[in-house]
Specification:
The protein has 420 residues and is mostly helical. Helices cover 82% and strands 0% of the residues. The relative contact order is 0.13. The mean pLDDT is 83.
Length: 420
Amino acid sequence: MPVVRDLRVLLRLRDFRRLLAVRLLSQGADGVYQVALATYVVFSPEKETSPAAIASAMAVLLLPYSLVGPFAGALLDRWSRRQVFVHGNLLRAVLAVVTAVLMVSHVPAWLFYASALCVTAVNRFVLAGLSAALPRVVDAERLVMANSLSPTAGTLAATGGGALAFAVRLLASDSDAVVVLLGASFYLCAALVSLSMAPELLGPDRAVTPPRLGTALVGTARDLRLAVRYLAAPRRREVVWALFAMTLMRFCYGALLVMLLMLCRYALATDPEDGMRLLGLALGISGAGFFTAAAVTPWAAGRLGPGRWITVCAAGAAVLEPALGLPFATVPLLLAAFVLGLTTQGAKIATDTIVQFAVDDGFRGRIFSVYDVLFNVAFVGAAGASALILPADGRSAALVLMVALVYAAVAVAMARVERR
């Protein structure tokens, strides 16, 4: 397989192997930590879970990506990237231990969320540093290959970490703190692997003096404003509509995920442990939908065009999600999870393609920063909207129908754009 061959080529490079190990350990720890946080909020037997609590947890997990992400580069250009990995992972290990202590202590909820927020905020700097350091360990000829494989491997590591967290949580019953400590050990291992690299290896180049911090932060805000203005040009209508469509579909995904969490906690299972097993199965099936989308979308988007493929995904979700979701039964909901994974990821791959091909190279990074903010804010907004609509047991025909209408509106809008 070409992917395996490419990976073998890259793994011959010692420094790439070490940087990849840091990524795998860091993102694996992220998967463990995020699942531990979610199961603590949703499935702790002593806690009465509510949609508002789930919305708070999602905000903690995702808002740092949106608020800190665009400005992370201004600070990373001033710090040794190797030291960012060492100190960032050590700090996250300590904070994860603090989170575990808070889980077993009777403390105000805001203190627990503040600890979790600090962990995810540091994560943004580590991930941005991993991407920035990649050209220092791979030659120009293999950089595209490394940019393709390294983030994918990190995503798989995060998924594997989440699966491991579910398994440990089921074995160590009612012990979310144990799962968090497992994540802390992964963060510590990532810091130790970072120490195996020379301090100057990963840059930044000290021969280049970065601009003053205030100037860099103001410049980043100005760049984001210019990116929005760039999108306002009439000839970039397809890019704008694709981003708009993906934002709304991400909103739908988030709303349905919150509903699924509540259903697994109260309506579809007899106790929290059974509910957690059902949620793990549903997320695994949804992940299978993501992988199916990765296999199908290149062929489908190649035949139909990326914009029309987004239309098909939205239209399919508009029809299938209410048909499978309204019975509020286990098997149809598992099928709906697969459809949701397939249509959401299929639309995202198509949107990424449209942005990559239709945006000038000088603006592409800034447009993806805007895209990242929209993507995560939509998810948090969906959790907030669900908190207002969902009843205690998660059964809400109104939410399912609202989401179906949003999907249908996206399909109609994209079809009109493609006709033009």
